[in-house]
TrEMBL record:
Species of the source: Sagittarius serpentarius
Zinc-finger among keywords: no
Name of one Pfam family that matches: 5-FTHF_cyc-lig
A molecular function (GO) term: RNA binding
Gene that this sequence comes from: Mthfsd
Domain RRM: 318-391
Keyword Metal-binding: no
Name of protein: Methenyltetrahydrofolate synthase domain-containing protein
Length: 398
Protein backbone atom coordinates (compact mmCIF):
# COMPACT_ATOMS: atom_id res chain seq x y z
CA UNK A 1 0.00 0.00 0.00
CA UNK A 2 1.27 3.46 -0.96
CA UNK A 3 -0.56 6.77 -0.71
CA UNK A 4 -3.77 5.05 0.39
CA UNK A 5 -4.27 2.96 -2.79
CA UNK A 6 -4.39 -0.76 -2.05
CA UNK A 7 -3.40 -3.11 -4.86
CA UNK A 8 -3.92 -6.86 -4.71
CA UNK A 9 -1.19 -9.25 -5.78
CA UNK A 10 -1.34 -9.99 -9.50
CA UNK A 11 -3.32 -6.83 -10.26
CA UNK A 12 -3.73 -6.07 -13.96
CA UNK A 13 -3.20 -2.66 -15.51
CA UNK A 14 -6.93 -2.13 -15.54
CA UNK A 15 -7.16 -3.10 -11.84
CA UNK A 16 -4.54 -0.45 -11.06
CA UNK A 17 -6.43 2.20 -13.01
CA UNK A 18 -9.74 1.43 -11.34
CA UNK A 19 -8.20 1.51 -7.86
CA UNK A 20 -6.55 4.89 -8.46
CA UNK A 21 -9.65 6.45 -10.02
CA UNK A 22 -11.88 5.12 -7.24
CA UNK A 23 -9.52 6.36 -4.52
CA UNK A 24 -9.23 9.87 -5.98
CA UNK A 25 -13.00 10.20 -6.11
CA UNK A 26 -13.72 8.60 -2.72
CA UNK A 27 -11.04 10.60 -0.89
CA UNK A 28 -12.15 13.97 -2.25
CA UNK A 29 -8.86 14.48 -4.12
CA UNK A 30 -10.40 14.45 -7.59
CA UNK A 31 -10.73 17.80 -9.35
CA UNK A 32 -12.48 19.07 -12.50
CA UNK A 33 -13.23 17.49 -14.94
CA UNK A 34 -15.09 14.75 -13.10
CA UNK A 35 -15.59 11.91 -12.77
CA UNK A 36 -11.91 11.18 -13.28
CA UNK A 37 -12.57 7.62 -14.46
CA UNK A 38 -11.21 6.86 -17.95
CA UNK A 39 -9.20 10.09 -17.91
CA UNK A 40 -5.73 11.22 -16.98
CA UNK A 41 -7.12 12.38 -13.62
CA UNK A 42 -6.93 15.95 -12.44
CA UNK A 43 -6.37 16.30 -8.70
CA UNK A 44 -6.26 18.91 -5.97
CA UNK A 45 -2.70 20.22 -5.83
CA UNK A 46 -1.92 19.61 -9.51
CA UNK A 47 -0.89 23.23 -10.10
CA UNK A 48 1.49 23.07 -7.12
CA UNK A 49 3.01 19.87 -8.50
CA UNK A 50 3.38 21.47 -11.93
CA UNK A 51 5.18 24.51 -10.52
CA UNK A 52 7.95 22.34 -9.13
CA UNK A 53 9.07 21.57 -12.70
CA UNK A 54 10.74 25.00 -12.68
CA UNK A 55 13.23 23.60 -10.16
CA UNK A 56 14.40 20.86 -12.54
CA UNK A 57 17.59 21.47 -14.53
CA UNK A 58 16.13 19.49 -17.43
CA UNK A 59 13.31 22.05 -17.64
CA UNK A 60 15.56 25.08 -17.36
CA UNK A 61 17.91 23.76 -20.06
CA UNK A 62 15.10 22.77 -22.43
CA UNK A 63 14.22 25.02 -25.34
CA UNK A 64 11.42 22.93 -26.87
CA UNK A 65 8.97 21.04 -24.64
CA UNK A 66 6.17 18.64 -25.52
CA UNK A 67 3.37 18.61 -22.93
CA UNK A 68 0.22 16.51 -23.17
CA UNK A 69 -3.12 18.40 -23.31
CA UNK A 70 -4.49 16.89 -20.07
CA UNK A 71 -5.97 19.26 -17.47
CA UNK A 72 -3.54 18.36 -14.63
CA UNK A 73 -0.61 19.45 -16.85
CA UNK A 74 -1.97 22.95 -17.42
CA UNK A 75 0.51 24.42 -14.94
CA UNK A 76 3.47 22.94 -16.85
CA UNK A 77 2.21 24.41 -20.12
CA UNK A 78 1.92 27.81 -18.43
CA UNK A 79 5.42 27.53 -16.95
CA UNK A 80 6.84 26.73 -20.39
CA UNK A 81 5.10 29.73 -21.97
CA UNK A 82 6.16 32.06 -19.17
CA UNK A 83 9.76 30.90 -19.64
CA UNK A 84 9.45 31.67 -23.39
CA UNK A 85 10.07 28.08 -24.39
CA UNK A 86 8.65 26.50 -27.54
CA UNK A 87 5.57 24.57 -26.41
CA UNK A 88 4.26 21.62 -28.43
CA UNK A 89 0.96 19.97 -27.49
CA UNK A 90 -0.30 16.79 -29.20
CA UNK A 91 -3.54 17.30 -31.10
CA UNK A 92 -6.48 15.57 -29.34
CA UNK A 93 -6.51 11.91 -30.36
CA UNK A 94 -4.07 12.86 -33.17
CA UNK A 95 -7.02 13.51 -35.51
CA UNK A 96 -5.51 16.49 -37.35
CA UNK A 97 -1.77 15.92 -37.00
CA UNK A 98 0.86 15.21 -34.38
CA UNK A 99 1.50 18.52 -32.63
CA UNK A 100 0.12 21.97 -32.20
CA UNK A 101 2.75 24.62 -31.56
CA UNK A 102 1.37 27.20 -29.15
CA UNK A 103 2.08 30.71 -30.42
CA UNK A 104 0.97 33.42 -27.97
CA UNK A 105 0.19 36.81 -29.52
CA UNK A 106 2.93 39.44 -29.48
CA UNK A 107 3.13 41.17 -26.09
CA UNK A 108 0.83 38.61 -24.46
CA UNK A 109 -0.14 39.45 -20.87
CA UNK A 110 0.03 36.95 -18.01
CA UNK A 111 -3.70 36.40 -18.43
CA UNK A 112 -3.36 35.64 -22.15
CA UNK A 113 -0.54 33.17 -21.42
CA UNK A 114 -2.79 31.52 -18.84
CA UNK A 115 -5.47 31.14 -21.50
CA UNK A 116 -2.90 29.77 -23.99
CA UNK A 117 -2.13 26.98 -21.51
CA UNK A 118 -5.77 25.81 -21.40
CA UNK A 119 -7.53 23.49 -23.83
CA UNK A 120 -9.36 26.48 -25.31
CA UNK A 121 -6.10 28.38 -25.73
CA UNK A 122 -4.53 25.41 -27.50
CA UNK A 123 -7.32 25.70 -30.10
CA UNK A 124 -7.07 29.48 -30.46
CA UNK A 125 -3.32 30.13 -30.31
CA UNK A 126 -1.68 27.25 -32.15
CA UNK A 127 -0.35 26.18 -35.52
CA UNK A 128 -0.04 22.55 -36.63
CA UNK A 129 3.29 20.75 -36.84
CA UNK A 130 3.27 17.60 -38.97
CA UNK A 131 5.67 14.72 -39.54
CA UNK A 132 7.82 16.91 -41.75
CA UNK A 133 8.17 19.61 -39.09
CA UNK A 134 11.71 19.98 -37.78
CA UNK A 135 10.79 19.52 -34.13
CA UNK A 136 13.61 18.77 -31.68
CA UNK A 137 12.01 18.09 -28.31
CA UNK A 138 14.26 18.57 -25.27
CA UNK A 139 11.72 17.51 -22.62
CA UNK A 140 8.57 15.37 -22.70
CA UNK A 141 5.83 15.81 -20.08
CA UNK A 142 3.05 13.21 -19.93
CA UNK A 143 0.07 12.54 -17.72
CA UNK A 144 -0.38 9.24 -15.90
CA UNK A 145 -3.04 7.31 -14.04
CA UNK A 146 -0.42 5.50 -11.98
CA UNK A 147 3.36 5.44 -11.81
CA UNK A 148 5.97 3.63 -9.72
CA UNK A 149 9.10 5.08 -8.16
CA UNK A 150 11.04 2.89 -10.62
CA UNK A 151 9.53 4.82 -13.51
CA UNK A 152 6.96 2.29 -14.70
CA UNK A 153 3.93 4.19 -16.01
CA UNK A 154 0.28 3.29 -16.62
CA UNK A 155 -1.87 5.64 -18.72
CA UNK A 156 -5.62 5.62 -19.20
CA UNK A 157 -5.46 2.66 -21.56
CA UNK A 158 -5.80 4.14 -25.05
CA UNK A 159 -2.06 4.19 -25.78
CA UNK A 160 -1.84 7.71 -27.18
CA UNK A 161 1.08 8.92 -25.02
CA UNK A 162 3.09 5.79 -25.94
CA UNK A 163 2.19 6.23 -29.61
CA UNK A 164 3.04 9.95 -29.61
CA UNK A 165 6.47 9.20 -28.15
CA UNK A 166 7.09 6.41 -30.67
CA UNK A 167 6.08 8.76 -33.50
CA UNK A 168 8.50 11.40 -32.16
CA UNK A 169 11.27 8.77 -32.24
CA UNK A 170 10.39 7.93 -35.85
CA UNK A 171 10.49 11.57 -36.94
CA UNK A 172 13.74 12.22 -35.03
CA UNK A 173 12.15 14.66 -32.58
CA UNK A 174 13.45 12.88 -29.46
CA UNK A 175 16.68 11.07 -28.63
CA UNK A 176 17.46 8.17 -26.29
CA UNK A 177 18.41 10.58 -23.52
CA UNK A 178 15.42 12.95 -23.84
CA UNK A 179 13.97 13.10 -20.30
CA UNK A 180 10.33 12.28 -19.60
CA UNK A 181 8.43 13.83 -16.68
CA UNK A 182 5.00 12.99 -15.27
CA UNK A 183 2.78 14.94 -12.84
CA UNK A 184 0.61 12.96 -10.40
CA UNK A 185 -0.85 13.06 -6.90
CA UNK A 186 1.11 11.22 -4.21
CA UNK A 187 -1.60 8.54 -4.07
CA UNK A 188 -0.95 7.72 -7.75
CA UNK A 189 2.61 6.61 -6.94
CA UNK A 190 2.15 2.85 -6.44
CA UNK A 191 4.04 -0.41 -6.81
CA UNK A 192 3.67 -1.64 -10.40
CA UNK A 193 4.88 -5.09 -11.38
CA UNK A 194 7.39 -4.89 -14.24
CA UNK A 195 5.74 -7.81 -15.98
CA UNK A 196 2.77 -5.53 -16.69
CA UNK A 197 4.94 -3.43 -19.01
CA UNK A 198 5.07 -4.02 -22.75
CA UNK A 199 7.86 -3.04 -25.16
CA UNK A 200 5.84 -0.07 -26.40
CA UNK A 201 5.13 1.33 -22.91
CA UNK A 202 6.74 4.67 -22.11
CA UNK A 203 8.70 4.99 -18.85
CA UNK A 204 9.44 8.22 -16.94
CA UNK A 205 12.58 9.78 -15.50
CA UNK A 206 10.98 12.27 -13.08
CA UNK A 207 7.77 12.17 -11.04
CA UNK A 208 6.41 15.41 -9.63
CA UNK A 209 3.74 15.34 -6.90
CA UNK A 210 2.42 18.11 -4.62
CA UNK A 211 4.97 17.04 -1.97
CA UNK A 212 7.83 15.29 -3.76
CA UNK A 213 10.19 15.29 -6.73
CA UNK A 214 11.26 11.73 -7.54
CA UNK A 215 14.12 10.96 -9.91
CA UNK A 216 13.50 7.37 -10.98
CA UNK A 217 16.89 6.57 -12.54
CA UNK A 218 14.91 4.24 -14.80
CA UNK A 219 17.15 2.02 -16.92
CA UNK A 220 14.43 0.32 -18.92
CA UNK A 221 14.77 1.39 -22.61
CA UNK A 222 12.06 3.65 -23.96
CA UNK A 223 10.23 2.70 -27.18
CA UNK A 224 12.47 2.95 -30.25
CA UNK A 225 9.61 3.69 -32.61
CA UNK A 226 6.22 2.15 -33.31
CA UNK A 227 6.17 -1.63 -33.01
CA UNK A 228 3.36 -2.03 -35.51
CA UNK A 229 2.69 -5.73 -35.03
CA UNK A 230 2.56 -5.50 -31.22
CA UNK A 231 0.53 -2.34 -30.70
CA UNK A 232 -2.90 -3.59 -29.72
CA UNK A 233 -4.42 -0.13 -30.22
CA UNK A 234 -3.35 -0.01 -33.87
CA UNK A 235 -5.80 -1.22 -36.49
CA UNK A 236 -7.06 -0.22 -39.91
CA UNK A 237 -9.90 1.54 -38.09
CA UNK A 238 -7.45 3.66 -36.09
CA UNK A 239 -5.37 4.40 -39.20
CA UNK A 240 -8.56 5.71 -40.78
CA UNK A 241 -9.06 8.09 -37.87
CA UNK A 242 -5.44 9.29 -37.63
CA UNK A 243 -4.15 10.44 -41.04
CA UNK A 244 -0.66 11.26 -39.72
CA UNK A 245 -0.32 7.69 -38.45
CA UNK A 246 -1.18 6.38 -41.90
CA UNK A 247 1.41 8.68 -43.41
CA UNK A 248 4.08 7.52 -40.95
CA UNK A 249 3.27 3.87 -41.63
CA UNK A 250 3.55 4.44 -45.37
CA UNK A 251 6.87 6.27 -44.91
CA UNK A 252 8.31 3.46 -42.77
CA UNK A 253 7.09 0.82 -45.20
CA UNK A 254 8.99 2.59 -47.99
CA UNK A 255 12.19 2.26 -45.95
CA UNK A 256 11.68 -1.51 -45.69
CA UNK A 257 10.41 -1.66 -42.11
CA UNK A 258 7.85 -4.32 -41.19
CA UNK A 259 4.62 -2.38 -40.63
CA UNK A 260 2.27 -5.35 -40.43
CA UNK A 261 -0.55 -4.60 -37.98
CA UNK A 262 -1.64 -7.00 -35.29
CA UNK A 263 -5.04 -7.42 -36.94
CA UNK A 264 -3.32 -8.29 -40.24
CA UNK A 265 -1.59 -11.40 -38.89
CA UNK A 266 -4.70 -13.56 -39.13
CA UNK A 267 -5.28 -12.22 -42.65
CA UNK A 268 -1.68 -13.09 -43.58
CA UNK A 269 -2.13 -16.60 -42.22
CA UNK A 270 -5.11 -17.09 -44.51
CA UNK A 271 -3.38 -15.45 -47.48
CA UNK A 272 -1.07 -18.40 -48.12
CA UNK A 273 -3.75 -20.94 -49.02
CA UNK A 274 -3.61 -22.25 -52.62
CA UNK A 275 -6.82 -20.39 -53.53
CA UNK A 276 -5.50 -17.11 -52.14
CA UNK A 277 -2.15 -17.51 -53.88
CA UNK A 278 -3.88 -18.24 -57.20
CA UNK A 279 -6.11 -15.18 -56.75
CA UNK A 280 -3.06 -13.04 -56.01
CA UNK A 281 -1.23 -14.31 -59.11
CA UNK A 282 -4.28 -13.58 -61.29
CA UNK A 283 -4.55 -10.05 -59.89
CA UNK A 284 -0.84 -9.39 -60.49
CA UNK A 285 -1.16 -10.64 -64.08
CA UNK A 286 -4.19 -8.39 -64.67
CA UNK A 287 -2.31 -5.35 -63.34
CA UNK A 288 0.73 -6.16 -65.51
CA UNK A 289 -1.43 -6.39 -68.64
CA UNK A 290 -3.18 -3.11 -67.77
CA UNK A 291 0.17 -1.38 -67.26
CA UNK A 292 1.45 -2.61 -70.64
CA UNK A 293 -1.58 -1.18 -72.37
CA UNK A 294 -1.57 2.14 -70.53
CA UNK A 295 -0.90 5.31 -72.49
CA UNK A 296 2.16 7.21 -71.36
CA UNK A 297 2.89 10.49 -73.16
CA UNK A 298 5.45 12.98 -71.76
CA UNK A 299 4.58 13.77 -68.17
CA UNK A 300 0.98 12.55 -68.56
CA UNK A 301 0.19 9.01 -67.55
CA UNK A 302 -3.29 7.50 -67.52
CA UNK A 303 -4.10 4.08 -66.10
CA UNK A 304 -7.60 2.62 -66.15
CA UNK A 305 -9.20 -0.30 -64.35
CA UNK A 306 -10.09 -2.47 -67.34
CA UNK A 307 -12.53 -4.45 -65.21
CA UNK A 308 -15.00 -1.55 -65.02
CA UNK A 309 -15.41 -0.18 -68.56
CA UNK A 310 -19.21 -0.06 -68.21
CA UNK A 311 -18.91 2.97 -65.92
CA UNK A 312 -17.37 5.05 -68.70
CA UNK A 313 -19.78 7.81 -69.67
CA UNK A 314 -22.30 6.83 -67.02
CA UNK A 315 -22.14 10.23 -65.36
CA UNK A 316 -21.49 8.62 -61.98
CA UNK A 317 -17.70 8.86 -61.99
CA UNK A 318 -16.33 11.41 -59.50
CA UNK A 319 -12.82 12.84 -59.72
CA UNK A 320 -10.44 13.58 -56.84
CA UNK A 321 -7.67 16.14 -57.17
CA UNK A 322 -4.25 15.38 -55.65
CA UNK A 323 -1.87 18.35 -55.54
CA UNK A 324 1.41 19.51 -54.00
CA UNK A 325 3.20 16.43 -55.38
CA UNK A 326 7.00 16.97 -55.23
CA UNK A 327 8.96 16.68 -58.51
CA UNK A 328 10.92 13.74 -57.06
CA UNK A 329 7.82 11.56 -56.56
CA UNK A 330 7.01 9.02 -59.26
CA UNK A 331 3.62 7.70 -60.24
CA UNK A 332 4.53 4.28 -58.82
CA UNK A 333 4.91 5.79 -55.36
CA UNK A 334 1.45 7.36 -55.52
CA UNK A 335 -0.06 4.11 -56.76
CA UNK A 336 1.58 2.24 -53.89
CA UNK A 337 0.13 4.72 -51.41
CA UNK A 338 -3.35 4.44 -52.95
CA UNK A 339 -3.27 0.66 -52.56
CA UNK A 340 -1.91 0.99 -49.02
CA UNK A 341 -4.78 3.26 -47.96
CA UNK A 342 -7.44 1.24 -49.81
CA UNK A 343 -8.16 4.14 -52.16
CA UNK A 344 -7.34 2.59 -55.55
CA UNK A 345 -9.23 4.52 -58.29
CA UNK A 346 -10.83 3.29 -61.48
CA UNK A 347 -8.42 5.54 -63.36
CA UNK A 348 -5.36 7.59 -62.47
CA UNK A 349 -4.39 10.64 -64.54
CA UNK A 350 -0.82 11.53 -63.57
CA UNK A 351 0.39 15.06 -64.41
CA UNK A 352 3.82 15.13 -62.80
CA UNK A 353 5.01 18.29 -64.52
CA UNK A 354 2.12 20.16 -62.91
CA UNK A 355 2.73 18.41 -59.54
CA UNK A 356 -0.74 16.92 -59.55
CA UNK A 357 -2.86 13.89 -60.35
CA UNK A 358 -6.54 13.17 -60.85
CA UNK A 359 -8.22 10.04 -59.54
CA UNK A 360 -11.54 8.77 -60.93
CA UNK A 361 -13.89 6.83 -58.64
CA UNK A 362 -17.16 5.08 -59.42
CA UNK A 363 -19.34 7.51 -57.47
CA UNK A 364 -19.23 10.49 -55.13
CA UNK A 365 -19.44 8.40 -51.95
CA UNK A 366 -16.38 6.34 -52.95
CA UNK A 367 -14.48 9.50 -53.91
CA UNK A 368 -15.29 11.20 -50.59
CA UNK A 369 -14.17 8.08 -48.74
CA UNK A 370 -10.87 8.20 -50.65
CA UNK A 371 -10.40 11.87 -49.75
CA UNK A 372 -10.93 11.00 -46.08
CA UNK A 373 -8.51 8.07 -46.25
CA UNK A 374 -5.78 10.06 -47.98
CA UNK A 375 -6.05 13.16 -45.79
CA UNK A 376 -2.65 13.98 -44.31
CA UNK A 377 -0.73 11.70 -46.69
CA UNK A 378 2.89 12.77 -47.10
CA UNK A 379 5.06 11.84 -50.09
CA UNK A 380 8.59 13.05 -50.78
CA UNK A 381 8.50 15.43 -47.83
CA UNK A 382 5.26 17.18 -48.86
CA UNK A 383 1.82 16.78 -47.33
CA UNK A 384 -0.40 16.25 -50.36
CA UNK A 385 -3.48 18.33 -51.04
CA UNK A 386 -6.38 15.92 -51.56
CA UNK A 387 -9.93 17.09 -52.35
CA UNK A 388 -12.79 16.60 -54.78
CA UNK A 389 -11.94 18.17 -58.13
CA UNK A 390 -13.50 21.64 -58.51
CA UNK A 391 -16.08 20.57 -61.06
CA UNK A 392 -17.15 17.65 -58.84
CA UNK A 393 -17.81 19.32 -55.50
CA UNK A 394 -21.48 20.10 -56.09
CA UNK A 395 -22.12 17.15 -58.33
CA UNK A 396 -23.66 13.87 -57.35
CA UNK A 397 -27.44 14.11 -57.14
CA UNK A 398 -28.15 11.84 -60.11
Amino acid sequence: MEGGVRLRAGASKWDVREKVWDYLEASGLADFPRPVHRRIPNFKGSYQACCSIKELDVFNRAREIKVDPDKPLEGVRLAALQARKTLLVPTPRLRTGLFNKIVPPSGATKEILRICATSQGIKEYSVPVGLDGKARVDLVVVGSVAVSEKGWRIGKGEGYADMEYAMMVSMGAVQEDTPVVTIVHDCQVVDIAEELLDDHDLTVDYILTPTRTIETNCKRPKPQGIIWHKARALSYEMLGKIPILKSLRHREKQTGKDVTLLDEHSDLANANTPAALNEKATAENTRAQAAMGAAQIGQHYVESDSLSPRLEGSGMITTVYVGNIPPSVRVSELKCALREFHATPLRLNWQGAQHRAFLDYKDKATAESAVSSLKGLSLGGNTLRVELAKNQRNKGQV
